[in-house]
Amino acid sequence: MEPSQSLEVEITFDVDADIDVPDWTQVPLVVSVAEPEVRELDAVYYDTADYILGRAGYALRRREGGPDAGWHLKGPRQGSGRMETGWPLDIGSDAASVPGVPPEIAAHIADLTTHELVVIARIRYTRTAYALLDADGGVLAEMVDDRVRTRDERRGIEQAWREWEIELGPAAPDDSDALTSFFDAVTVAAYAAGAREASSDSKLARALGV
Predict the structure, then answer these.
(1) Distance (Å, whole) CA 153 – CA 155
(2) Tens-digit pLDDT string for the chain (210 aa)
(3) What is the DSSP pairing of strand 32-33 with strand 4-15?
(4) Cα separation, 48 vs 116, whole angstroms
């Protein structure tokens, strides 16, 4: 089975537990916001004992819940985005009954490492997702309000926080200047509501304290 690939372009903010989601229709191009959708997500992250994948800029996870449940390999950041490769949860004939990384995925990352892969973190979160729509009903972006709970499985350290992510959708501007303007306007709206610049590059990095 060939994996799927997509370029994930998003911006993330830290937010306090009690602030309200802003009115995203104040952002140019956003005409309406779809009704929120609540998802319960549970992700287990894998790496080698000495974090070979992480040091190369990769993150490998198995995530349950939501419309894109499955195995995901996120690559190093490319500008404002990261390439994501995906496989279904049931990849491999014994994937449902045998713990660990399926051989198809281990083979895919063999150029990065052939060392044993172990669980390094578990990240669970309650996600409230909002589709930001243009005048034609196209999805400019998906805004998600995540209440996150993490455990660094190597050190036994648990954390909790809240964050917002805005990820571009299929109707997002494809002109670089228009895209920059869109993200600038999103940032202004988020900061006005009380958000702050994200304190870490990703949920996994924050969970691991890097």
Answers:
(1) 6
(2) 689 999 999 999 999 999 999 999 999 999 999 999 999 999 999 999 999 999 999 999 999 999 999 999 999 988 778 999 999 998 875 544 446 899 999 999 999 999 999 999 999 999 999 999 999 999 999 999 999 999 999 999 999 999 999 999 999 998 889 999 999 999 999 999 999 999 998 999 999 998
(3) unpaired
(4) 6
Report how far residue 122's alpha carbon sits from residue 207's, in angstroms, rounded to the nearest whole number: 9
DSSP 130-145: EEEE-TTS-EEEEEEE
- Judge contact between 160 and 149, C-beta under 8 A: yes
Where do the H-state alpha helices sit in the chain? Answer: 52-55, 103-108, 176-193, 203-208
